[in-house]
Design brief:
Largest sheet: 6 strands, parallel
Number of helices: 18
Shape: elongated
Strand order of the largest sheet: 3-2-1-4-5-6
Strand content: 5-15%
Length: 480
């Protein structure tokens, strides 16, 4: 029986291994992590991450050919294929701080693999890593190998949170990069055979190591660039009276452009986009490509501008101050159908409003109060480091309350900000919300989920990103 071990039981490792176990019943899959609480959660009825469909997959396989364990060394030593899905946070100090990836956890994993291995292994990069990481890992494994052979493969994940299980069942492509040597090609075939249990052969792409590593960074940079492009257009739409939804629809029907990732919003979030672009910027700078680095930096600049523009619009619309005013925040996760708050635009928007002394009442169907308070207490990039390096008991932000539904959040509020596109926000009883809010009652829709005209008929003053401005808002322009 082929044995697979995945080091790292997070958003990538857990779902990916669960689907491999489901689709490959003849393969034994172990997911290992040093976090006792995380592994305990994977073995319980309350999984550590929320992802539609994940629960059912795990329950079908767990205890049969899918195992979650803290016995890292045993499972690594027994495995034929080892996926490494450890964190690669952005460095917060030293060379490359604020841009470069910190490969400490990767190096520790590589040294441990070399230390406990008693048979030849295929080691698969599953985390997003800088180009040429495989070379560094190869050196560590080779110099500590004790005669054992290791082949390094790059198999980047292209999952979207909220649709990860669907993406794993029916991927656009599976990319496997390896050395162009007989042993390297043999290793590629071994991993290809795993995916071939359910992925059509034409969708399994094989490349050299460096192409595979760079493809992941490039994919995320291109997606983020599309979001920043449409968000830059949204500012121009507001200034000219155009409607960003109509512009997006028109350009998206061009087959050369396509319609995906053209929804304007308060900004992109998630664990990958900003981190991977910063990483790309650093690699470009290290290779003397300053113009290319500047180009990608601008994608992040526009994203930051969009968030500050939204905050400025809220404050300027409400008589240029939100001091002491209750602002309801609907949605804190970076997108719907996930509880993930990493780099969510809601953090910067909330901090911006708190900076003007607003009182916030926050509701999100999947994010806990502790997580929200922790996010608002942390410095930038702290989320990307282990929990023991984060504030253990978040300093409760006095002006923030976290509540259990949208109606409680909006009661007596002066304004309402929609920051995540949860489906339930589309069907709220806005007449009831309007009746219980202070007047004038403002809605600031950062995701374009509500029907602005219907809300105006109820009596709201409405701001929707990239849409023609309410006459009230024209009289009170946002100061950038």
């Amino acid at each position: 029986m082929v044995k697979i071990c995945c080091i790292g039981a997070g958003y990538v490792g857990g779902p990916t291994m669960a689907v491999i176990a489901l689709k490959c019943p003849s393969i034994e899959v172990a997911v290992v992590d040093i976090s006792v609480s995380r592994i305990t959660a994977w073995n319980s009825d309350q999984l550590p991450i929320y992802e539609p469909g994940l629960d059912e997959v795990v329950k079908q396989c767990r205890g049969r050919n899918l195992f979650f364990s803290t016995d890292v060394e045993r499972h690594v030593s027994e495995a034929d294929i080892i996926f490494v899905s450890v964190n690669t946070p952005t460095k917060t100090r030293g060379l490359g701080a604020g841009k470069a990836a910190d490969l400490t956890y990767w190096e520790c994993a590589a040294r441990m693999i070399a230390d406990v291995s008693k048979s030849n292994k295929i080691v698969v990069e599953k985390s997003t890593v800088p180009v040429k990481t495989a070379e560094a890992i190869e050196k560590i494994l080779t110099h500590n190998s004790k005669g054992i052979k290791f082949q390094i493969l790059s198999n980047p994940e292209f999952l979207a949170e909220g649709t990860a299980i669907k993406d794993l069942f029916n991927p656009d492509r599976v990319l496997i990069g390896g050395r162009e040597t007989p042993d390297g090609q043999k290793a590629i075939k071994a991993l290809k055979d795993v995916y071939a249990h359910w992925v059509p052969e034409e969708r399994i792409i094989c490349s050299n190591l460096w192409s595979a590593e760079l493809s992941k960074l490039a994919a995320n940079a291109f997606l983020a660039q599309r979001i920043s492009s449409v968000n830059a257009m949204s500012a121009l739409c507001e200034a000219t009276g155009a409607d960003v939804s109509e512009v997006s629809r028109a350009i998206g029907m061009d087959t050369r452009i396509g319609s995906k990732f053209l929804n304007s919003s308060v900004g992109f979030g998630g664990s990958c986009f900003q981190k991977d672009i910063l990483n790309l910027v650093y690699i470009c700078e290290c290779n003397g490509l300053t113009e290319v680095a500047s180009y990608w930096k601008q994608v992040i600049k526009v994203n930051d501008y969009q968030k500050s523009r939204f905050v400025n619009r809220v404050v300027s619309s409400m008589f240029n101050t939100v001091s002491g005013k209750k602002i309801a925040v609907l949605g804190f996760a970076f997108k719907k159908d996930t509880g993930d708050t990493r780099e969510t635009p809601a953090i910067d928007v909330c901090k911006g409003l708190l900076g003007d002394k607003a009182r916030l009442s926050i509701y999100d169907p999947q994010v806990t109060e502790e997580q929200i308070q922790r996010d608002l207490s942390m410095n930038k990039f702290d989320w990307d480091h282990p929990v023991h390096l984060q504030p253990m008991s978040p300093a409760s932000v006095k002006e923030v309350s976290v509540v259990w539904d949208a109606y409680n959040a909006t009661k007596d509020a002066h304004g309402l900000c929609i920051l995540t596109e949860w489906d339930e926000f589309k069907t709220l009883d806005f007449e009831r919300i309007f009746a219980n809010m202070q007047k004038p009652a403002f809605v600031f829709d950062g995701r374009n989920v509500v029907d602005a005209e219907k809300l105006r008929e109820i009596g709201f003053i409405v701001y929707s990103i990239g849409k023609p401005l309410d006459s009230w808002l024209k009289d009170m322009p946002a100061v950038a």
